[in-house]
Amino acid sequence: MKKMVPFCSMVILMVLVGCAGPGSGSTEERGSSDMPDWFLVPPTAEDALYGVGQAKKQNPSLARQTATARARTEISQAVNVKVSSMLKDFMQESGVGDNAQALEFSESVTKQVTSNALQGSVVKEAYVAKDGTMFILVDYPLASMRQDALNAAKKEEALYNEFKAQQGFDALEQEIGKLETK
After folding, report:
1. Contacts of 125 (CB under 8 A, 6+ apart)
2. Residue 30 and residue 41: Cα distance in Å, rounded?
3. Three-state DSSP class for 94?
4. Average pLDDT score over residue span 75-100
5. Confidence band of 6 (pLDDT split at 50, 70, 90)
6. How far apart are CA 172 and CA 177, in angstroms?
7. Which of 5, 22, 30, 73 has its CA 20 to 30 A from that of 50?
8. Is residue 17 scored above 60 in pLDDT?
9. Is this prediction's pTM over 0.85?
10. Can you tell me the distance from the alpha carbon of 51 to that of 75, in angstroms, rounded to the nearest whole number?
11. Of the candidates 122, 115, 120, 113, which has an alpha carbon nearest to the alpha carbon of residue 51?
12. Is 74 in contact with 118 (CB distance < 8 Å)?
């Protein structure tokens, strides 16, 4: 068993060195320098939210739609997102002294769900890289978000008023029913 440890270590070292070959270094080595500056550092403003999206498809129209959808998803997550997360962590050790063996397992799962109406969001910039990758920058004015929130509040108020009116009519019908049975 003790002779296997150096051999296993050598195999692992060779695998790691092999994985660190060309293309596994910095962003520049991967050829991603053909992207707009705003993709890595989106603009910021007090009166708007920005989202970026990227897609590489054979069909340019589908690439644009997908990149735009991803940019809007980024904005929607900034507005409101429901996050569910779970972490499983298992550790076990058996044996004594040099014969002890340890087992460890960790699993992390995260789910994010967002649902917002982004009326007024527009594609501000688009960029097509040399390899055909589409980059999209979407602008969502906060005035649109405020108006959407105000409209939603008015709708809720109208529904509540309708509910209260219906309760009033139901109470009136009950009272009339009581009078008729007397």
Report:
1. 36, 38, 136, 137
2. 18
3. strand
4. 88
5. very low
6. 9
7. 30
8. no
9. no
10. 5
11. 122
12. no
> What number of other Cβ atoms are within 10 A of residue 157's Cβ?
10
What is the amino acid identity at position 111?
K
How many distinct helices (H) and strands (E) make up the chain? 4, 5
Q: Which residues of 6-45 are buried (b: 16+ CB within 10 A; e: fewer)?
A: eeeeeeeeeeeeeeeeeeeeeeeeeeeeebeeebeebeee
**Tens of pLDDT along 57-67?**
999 999 999 99
Burial class of residue 136 (count of CB atoms within 10 Å of its CB; 0-12, 13-18, 19+)? buried
Q: Which two tokens stand for residue 57?
A: 């498809």
Tokens of 179: 């009078």
Structure tokens at 127: 């960029």
